[in-house]
Amino acid sequence: MSTFMRGKKCELRILEESDEEARAWTNGVMGNITLQHLLTGSIPMRWIEVQDYWRDKRKKGAVHWGIWIARNEEERGYMEPASKFVGVTGLYDPYEVYRSYEFRIIIFAGEELGKGIGQEATWMVTDYAFRRLNSHRVWLGVNEENAGAVKCYENVGYKLEGVLRDAIYCYGKYSGVKRYAILRHEWEEECRRRELSSMGPLYA
């Protein structure tokens, strides 16, 4: 699998929709805290259904990637690969008339949450949407209780547009869904701000 985009913390590779990828995604999501933040709610899934879902979305115009990180020597066991598949991200449900995409991301490897991987991947995919796909608007939905994801999106420059109250039912209770979006001129302003600050871009 070749690298499509590379950052400082992770790299994005074309999602091959393979059995191995689907099994890793399903086992990761079903086995840790990630499940409670899915907008589909706490619904058990089988890997073959995940695989079919990816293929269906791609046929409808989605572009998506696997998120990979490098393993250091301490993390690598006997015959372990040098890189690790930790998540999936992409642009979905294109609306060509309005040049709009929905952004999605999930880090299913619970041990990798909170390390800035999701923020870097969000930046790279959003940048791709505007620079390569000529998008005008990129939007997303997030469980309002997912504080880490909310902070990530706001740090990248997404603006809150509203809250869908009690929109999902997960783990025995209803939760709202926050809707965020970023427009082309806002993205360009965010890029200029980062170039002028000591913070710099989020990826190389």
Biggest sheet overview = 8 strands, mixed
Helix and strand run? EEHHEEEHEHEEH
CATH class: Alpha Beta
State the fourth-level CATH superfamily: Gcn5-related N-acetyltransferase (GNAT)
Number of helices: 5
Number of strands: 8
Strand sequence of the main sheet, in spatial order? 1-2-3-4-5-6-8-7
Overall 3D shape: globular
Q: What is the percentage of strand-forming residues?
A: 25-35%
Give the structural class.
Answer: alpha+beta
Mean pLDDT: 87
Please explain how this structure is put together.
This protein is an alpha+beta fold. 31% of the residues lie in helices and 33% in strands. It contains five helices and eight strands. It has an eight-stranded mixed sheet with strand order 1-2-3-4-5-6-8-7, sandwiched between helices. Helix 1 packs across helix 2 and helix 3 packs across helix 4. The longest helix has 15 residues. The mean pLDDT is 87.
